[in-house]
Amino acid sequence: MIEIPPVRKIILLLLIAHSSWLAASSQYWQQQVNYLIDVTLHDKDNTLDAFEKIEYINDSPDTLKFIWFHIWPNAYRNDKTAFSNQMLLNGNTKFYFADKEQRGYINRLDFKVNNATCAIEDHPQYIDVIKVILPESLAPSQRVTLTTPFHEKLPYNFSRGGHEGQSYQVTQWYPKPAVYDKNGWHPMPYLEQGEYYSEFGTFDVRITTPKNYVIAATGELQDEDEKRWLLARNNFFWEPVKQKIKQKAGTVKTSVQKFPPSIAETKTLRYTQNNIHDFAWFADKRFIVNHDTCQLPSGKVIDVFTYYTPSEKEVWKNSVPYCKQAIRFHSAALEEYPYNVVSAVQGPESFGGGMEYPTITLISPTRSTRELDLTINHEIGHNWFYAVLATNERDHPWMDEGVNTFYDHRYLAERYHQLPSEERALFETFAKEKLDQPIATTSENFNMVDYELVAYYKTSEWLRWLEGEVGKDAFDKAMKDYYDRWKFKHPQPEDFKKILEESTGRNLDSAFSFLNKKGTLENEQRRGTKMDFLLRRKYFSRFLNNNYQDLITISPAMGMNSYDKFMLGAFVTNVKLPLNKFKFFVAPMYAFGSKSLTGTGKLDLSFYPERILRKVDLFLNGSAFSENEYVDSAGKKAYLAFQKLVPGVRLTFKEKDPRSNLHRYLQWKTFFIAEDGLRFSRDTMMNPPGIVTTVRKIRETTTLNQLLIVSENFRALYPYRGEIKLEESKGFVRTAFTGNYFFNYPKSGGLNVRLFAGKFFYSGSKTINKQFETDRYHLNLTGPNGYEDYTYSDYFIGRNKFDGLPSQQIMIRDGGFKVRTDLLASKVGKTDDWLAALNFTSSVPPGINPLSLLPINIPLKVFFDVGTYADAWKQNSELDHFLFEGGLQVSLLGNTVNVYLPLIYSKPFKDYIQSTIEKKGRLWKTISFSIDISSFNLRKIDPHLSF
Ligand SMILES: [Zn+2]
Question: Are 926 and 902 in contact (CB under 8 A)?
Fold first, then answer.
């Protein structure tokens, strides 16, 4: 026996403790949770009443004092939940503005252990997560049984679960322990973008509903009678019936009854399943049921069920074969399907998409059988990458969605001989624009577009690249090894890497380093140049599905204005997806009216410094059109033209948060404009004596510098835009601020408030001559006309027309008033000093919009404008301090064309209209309109793109 000195004893003890801790930490463990749930559906008020019994087995080396529980139905309780906030940030206001009736919640919880009530603590942040304190600590390898009743109101199906009428999707519905793993607890709120992480166990669930509901659920149905009843429905379904409803006044109205009435008698069905980590069920009285068995390679026979409503009958008629194909495809690629049943259920339109649960998937109506086939393949594939390999999907979405998508793309190639070219083109566009995020981004931190393009598509491409690196056979074997080693467990990214390295015998450090990098992968290189014609057959499919570095598109170009009349030419561009650094378009045209060459074009060179600035664009715009006509000395019609050349630079700031909807840029443009003008001169002729006026065309050139500072936020709720514009040219500086703020109305539409404030400065002293020369640059209360569009930036039908329809066109700039006073020598509210205005535009709710009776949708709005300007405040001025107007507005072609009918206005406008416009047709002549082609751009598709 040897005596050990105390210090050495302590060190030794520490060493022993440390080595056992090391051994324990290297040994994989996971918790187990077994459920017994009894639930009843009340379809009158869309509620559930249930009782849950949970057996929690602590296989961790730690003693637990509490268990974090997810009570996710509370995600729908109010508009301040993590779910609600994320929906808003992703541009969806439906839940935020939902009625109380459409929201949902869970309550009447009473957790007990052996009849002792457990204390509950709220989560500091999330209303749908609670901490259940255990009455006694739970030691390693001990188990505890908790019970709780719960009552739940199902929300309208905004996201994966709830109900639409009496069609029920009961998902994320019961109190459920969060995962406890080597990294600790993983409590998480319910989110639309971002999925699950759950403990494995067995489920034994009893579901009670009115007897005529068809139930589809996770696991195996334990009632043979019910199974026979289901199979008998194979060729039976309920047709929606037209029902006569007596209304109050005694009139009879016919309506389509969507759901058959529920019968009073109820039934209780039992479903069981082991080795799963979630349970979902669906109830609908209209379901058609299809069934078949499917034999797997080992000889095992499983049941395949599909459930769908009569309206989807055509698309879903082959749904069972699709399911069988998906099961066989994944069984062959990985390992045989481990459960005895698989089901696909058609859900409502409202939630949109497909959603996986163990042994069962929910799919909303698809457009085609092909889309259904591919969706079923993806969702059933999740039985491998989610149900069996239960990764932490919230933190590593690529491990389920990305890996699963890799097998989707294999299926797409094998069955349809196609590549995911659309996703490719979009992903590469985002990568080129430096808007992509690395694969190893958490679900919550992905922006909505990257979640789709990176977590799904890019991961799949990365695996395809890896497959090419190690060879298909080695890759397939490695994936099989991964599945076999980690089935019914929680693999982490490092576990995935380790098994792939072991299986292939290769170091995959550099391959896995791509998970943390942005940008395109090596197998996504594009080469060569191709020329294509827009009018050629299948142009758009080639546009998306090609491997060219450069694609030159040629198409006919057409144009029209009052002077040039019809224009015809060619449009040539290299704009494509993904965008190249150098982009151009040119559209030279021949004008049949002016018999001249017209056209427009743009060159743009982009750089991506990726520090403070995301993007720098150097560009050169140009255009040439006719802008007026006159009769020359010889009595012949002649045309006045303009040409402009605009070099510039735009600096787009990098937004720190990739989920931000903010877009900020600084832009410099110098306009070099050449315009034709007329010079009238009087010649004194000797023979015959007299005075003749000759008209001579002269060339005038202008240079104008413009600095623009813009900050705009395209968020769904209260989007805004602020713009500072400074312009300088010979004799003046013009400064202007324009702000727009949109207040959403709960159902749709909203109120737009625009604020304008501008000041005009003369450089040097003001002279009568200078005032005259700078007239077109002065600030306007009324939207400027074509002559005052001094940068030739808007499209005008007839730029300098003084009568007829073209003369009624204005642009929304400066004061933004719609009443025109063009025939006055000095227009009402035109100033060379300062000007300010507020413009209100509100949509009219469909209920009180008389135009909503028309078969086509014409959005009616009301506007009200108020403005003031320097001249009205001058001493001895007789002008009103404030001018106003209000009227109706119709917005067409996505707000590109707006037509305004002023109905009320201040006295100066009234006096003008009564004195200058004859009574007949006066209303028609007070109408004005604007065409804003700049508002029609790519940003409507994605806020970050601009070209
Ligand atoms: Zn998926």
Answer: yes
Q: What is the pLDDT of residue 25?
A: 47
In single-letter form, the type of residue at position 278 comes to D
CB 425 within 8 A of CB 544: yes
pLDDT of residue 591: 96
Question: 377 alpha carbon to ligand 1 midpoint, in Å?
Answer: 10
DSSP H or E stretch at residue 172? none
Average pLDDT for 764-783: 92
SS3 string of 742-804? EEECCCCCEEEEEEEEEEEEECCCCCHHHHHHCHHHCECCECCCHHHCCCCCCCCCCCCCCCC
CA end-to-end span of the chain: 84
Q: Are 694 and 633 in contact (CB under 8 A)?
A: yes
Reading the block at residue 142, the tokens are: 């001990």
Cα of 306 vs centre of ligand 1, distance in Å, is 19
Cα 130 to ligand 1 centre (Å): 28
How many A from CA of 815 to the centre of ligand 1? 51
**3-state percent helix, strand, coil for the chain, nearest multiple of 5:** 25, 40, 35
pLDDT (average), residues 630-634? 83
DSSP string computed for 683-709: EEETTTTEEEEEEEEEEEEEEEEEEEE
Q: How far is the CA of 892 from the centre of ligand 1 (A)?
A: 38
Minimum mean pLDDT among 9-13, 843-847, 885-889, 943-947: which range?
943-947
Tokens describing residue 139:
């030691």
Nearest partner of 405 among 351, 457, 475, 479, judged by Cα:
457
> φ, ψ for residue 600 (rounded to 5)?
-150, 160
Residue 8 has pLDDT above 70, yes or no: no
Q: How many CB atoms lie within 10 A of CB 207?
A: 22
Query: At 548, is the secondary structure helix, strand, or coil?
Result: coil
Q: Residues of 481-495 as b/e, b for ≥16 C-beta within 10 angstroms?
A: ebbebbbebbbbbeb
Q: In angstroms, what is the span from residue 355 Cα to ligand 1's centroid?
A: 7
Q: Let me know: does 496 contact 399? Beta carbons within 8 Å.
A: yes
Model confidence over 390-415: pLDDT tens digits? 999 999 999 999 999 999 999 999 99
Return the sign of the alpha-carbon dihedral for residues 561, 562, 564, 568: positive
For residue 379, how far is its CA from the centre of ligand 1 (angstroms)? 6
Output the six-digit token pair for 496. Answer: 């995935």
Predicted local distance difference test score (pLDDT) of residue 9: 52
Query: Stretch 88-96: mean pLDDT, rounded?
Result: 93
**Three-state secondary-structure class, residue 660:** coil
Would the pLDDT of 19 be above 50? no
pLDDT tens digits for 781-800? Answer: 998 899 999 999 888 988 88
- Of 396, 406, 404, nearest to 379 by C-alpha is 404
Distance of alpha carbon 365 from alpha carbon 346, whole angstroms? 7
Instruction: Using DSSP, state whether 307 is helix, strand or coil.
Output: strand
Mean pLDDT score across all residues of the chain = 91
Distance from Cα 670 to the centre of ligand 1, integer Å: 50
- pLDDT tens digit string along 97-140? 999 999 999 999 999 999 999 999 999 999 999 999 999 999 99
- Which pLDDT value is given to residue 939? 38
How many angstroms separate the alpha carbon of residue 173 from the centre of ligand 1? 20
Residues with CB under 5 A from ligand 1 (ion): 401
**Contacting residues for 591 by C-beta, under 8 A, at least 6 apart:** 559, 564, 565, 566, 567, 597, 598, 625, 626
Sheet architecture: strand order including 64-70: 120-122, 129-138, 64-70, 176-177
Contact 832, 804 (CB under 8 A): no
Alpha helix locations (H) across 54-111?
A: 82-89
Structure tokens at 276: 């799963």
Its pTM stands at: 0.89
